[in-house]
Amino acid sequence: MKIAIVQDELIRIGGAERVCLCYHYAFPNADFYTIAYNPNGTFEEFKNFKINTNWYSKIAQTQKQYQKYFFPLGILAARMLDLRNYDVVIQCGTHCSKYVQVSKNSLVFSYCHTPFRLAWQPNSYAQYIESKGFNKFIFNIIIYFLKKIDKYFSKRTNFYITNAKEPLNRIFNYYKFKNEVKIIPPPVNISQFYISKNPKEYYFIVSRLEYYKKVHLVINVFNKLGKNLIVVGKGTQEEYLKSIAKSNITFKKGLSEAELADLYANCKGFLMPQHEDYGITPLEANASGRPVIAYAKGGVLETMIPYTNNENECTALFFEHQTEESLTNAILKFETLNFNSQFIRKHAEKFDEPIFVEKIKNFVLEKIKLHQF
Fold first, then answer.
1. Architecture per CATH, 190-351
2. Which of 16, 29, 144, 160 has the fewest CB atoms within 10 Å, measured from its CB?
3. pLDDT, tens digit (0-9, with 9 covering 90-100), for 334-363
C-alpha cells in the first residue's frame, strides 16, 4: 500500500509543522510532498527525509514570498503535485495540501488546523482590514475565488481530523462536510522542555507577528507596566511592533530549540493574547512548568486548567476581554499567585508527542481496514 503525506509548506517552525513531523513518525515509509521547502527555516528533523517539491519552492523560501505569490502561483503549484498513484493520501494544513491531484480510488485524510483563514476569516488580517477602495475590491475578488477553490477541493476528503471544537464546527459550516470529523489535539514534545529551579522576572510570548495574534496588545500593556517582556517570532508586523515597543521589551527570532526551551523554563509567565483555535505554545510553557496568562477563548478552554481559587491545581489564568485593562488586571492578579510547577508539567504530559502519534496512526489504520481498495 502506497501512502503519501502532503504539507502546505515547510518554511517555518510552528505547530502545523510539528504535527506534520508526527505524521512521518506514524508512517515512516510514506512519501512526503509540499510546494515550498526551506530546510534551514523549519525543523531540523525534516532534513532526514526526502521532501518532494516543485518549482514554487524556488520562489517561496520565506513566509513573505509564500504569501505574495500564493494567488495564483501557489495554487497552481499545488495542482501540479500528482499523487494519483497513491492508495492513501494524508493532507496536513489549512489550504493547498487539499489541492493536489489524487485518484478517485484513493482514501484521503485531511488534518485541518482550520479552513483557509484568508478565505473564510479575512478580518483576521490587518492587510485586509486596512485596505480601502480599489485595493479592497481586488482583495474581495481574490477571497471570492479562494472560497470557491477551497470548498471545491475540500469535498475530495474522506475523513477530516482537526485539533479542537472550533475548527471542527468550521469544517461543518464552511465545507458542509457530512462524514466524521475526529478531534486529535496536537502534541508537545515534552522531552525538549524542563523545569528551571530559578525562573527570572520576565514574561514571554512566542507568536507569529501578525495582526490577529494580538501581540500589539501585549506590547501596549507592557509599555505601561514597565515589566520585562521577551517576544519571539517574525511576521508582517515585526517592524511595526518593534517601533512601538519600549526598552523593557526584547525581540528575538531564529532561535534553536534549546534556546527556546531555556526562555520557556526561565520566564515568570507565558502570554497568549489571541483567540487561537488550539495553540501549542501554552502547552510548551506548561511542559516547562510555567503558567500561562491566556485570553479565555478557543483552544485554551480545552487544554488549560484555569485558576479559580486553587493556585496549586491550575495551569493558567484567563482574562475575559482583549483590552489593555483586562490584560493588565490579569497580570497584576498573576503576580499575587504561586503556581505549582510540578502539577503544571504533569498536566502537559497528557499531550506528549508519542500519545499523539499513536492516536493518529490508530485512526488512519482503522479507516484503511474498512476501506475497499
1. 3-Layer(aba) Sandwich (3.40)
2. 29
3. 999 999 999 999 999 999 999 999 999 999
